Every structure is written in structure tokens, then in C-alpha cells.
Amino acid sequence: MSEPAPPAYPPGYTSPPPPGAGGVPPQPQYGYAPGTYRLAPWGRRAVAALIDVLIVFVLASIVLVPLGLGLYHRGGTGRGVVALVGALILTVVLVAIVALVYAPVMLWRTNGKTVGRIVAGTRLIRANGQPMTLGVAAVREIVMKFLVVGVANAVTVGLPWATLLDSLWPLWDEENRALHDFPVNTRTVLD
Q1: Burial, 160: exposed, middle or buried (Cβ in 10 Å; 0-12, 13-18, 19+)?
Q2: Residues 165, 179: contact at Cβ < 8 Å?
Q3: Contact at 8 Å (CB) between 184 and 144?
Q4: Looking at residue 28, what is its pLDDT?
Q5: Could you write out the DSSP letters of every residue in 26-45?
Q6: CB contact at 8 A, 50 and 115
Q7: Do residues 177 and 169 lie in contact, with contact meaning Cβ atoms separated by under 8 Å?
């Protein structure tokens, strides 16, 4: 009789390796390792953006409609127009504040989702697989979208070429990135 062959251990081991050694690599904590996601098409990005814009206007309107109606009915003939102009200015300021807070906070607290993204089945992720932080979300949404694109639009006397270019950029970028995705290295992916 011949002796049985010794068990084959992985290279470098003289006994069975501990559990997990040489096994399946650990999965990223947030579900997206670099290169393991499916990019969202432009149409889904557009749907999510439209829904989020509507939400910002609805949230701002909840405060503004009663305020504006109250101011308009409070004054006389001449004061009503002044109150209406004041309400319009207040509307612009309140919509800007809601927009500046809504997306960064939602992206941070839900790790890359807003209500629009949830409906569209997408998520914003960082390409390095790290979780979304308030800082990254704020830079993307406030600095890049509102300040850089907004200033570029203002320089051209209100022509929205920068917004249009930023919105359409994913159509020809191989990773479907908009211009505001580049500085923070984010991707919109299917969730």
C-alpha cells in the first residue's frame, strides 16, 4: 500500500491557511469598488435633475406662496406692486438657499442619492469607492454647478451656454461625466 499524498496547501503555507486567506477579496463597504459599477445613461441623469429642480421649487413655494399673497394683499395699490417685487426677490433668494442646501445634504446623508436620483434609479458615487461626504457633495453642487457655471453664464450676459454645455457633456464623455463631475471625480451610476 502506498501512503496518501500530503494535502496541497497554497504556496507559502505548511498547514491549512486561516479563514479568508487567499480567498475572495474583501468587498468595498459601500458596494462600489472602482470599475465595478454601471454608468447611468444621460436620460436618467436628466430625469433625476428635473425631479430635483421641481422639488426645490415646491419646497420654496411652500414658504413663499403664503408670504407673497400676504404681502400683496396687505398694501394699497402702489404698495402691492412693491410688495410683489419684494416677494419675487425673496423667491429667488429662497430658491437659491433651498437649492444650495438640498442636494449636498441629500447626497451626503443618503450616500449619493437625492429624491430625483431615487426615482431615476441612479446614485452619485466617488470613483475611488469612498463614501460621499458633505465636502465632496458641496464642492460638486455649490462650487462647480452654481458658482463656476453660474459665473460663466453671467459673464455671457445671461446666455446659458455654460449650463447647456455642462448638462450635455455626458453625451460625449466616455464615462458619462458632466463638467461638474471632473474636479471631485464622481460618477452617476445605476443603483
Answers
A1: middle
A2: yes
A3: yes
A4: 52
A5: PPPTTS--TT-S-BPPHHHH
A6: no
A7: yes
Give me the pLDDT at residue 121, please.
Answer: 95
Q: In this predicted model, what pLDDT tens digit does every residue of 71-93 receive, in sequence order?
A: 556 555 556 677 667 767 877 78
Answer left, alpha or beta for residue 129, where phi above 0 means left and psi between -120 and 50 means alpha. Answer: left
DSSP for 152-177 reads HHHHTTT-THHHHHHHHGGGTSTT--
Model pLDDT for residues 36-67, shown as the tens digit of each residue: 788 999 999 999 999 998 998 888 777 776 76
Whole-angstrom Cα Rg for the chain: 26
Q: What is the value of pTM for the model shown?
A: 0.71
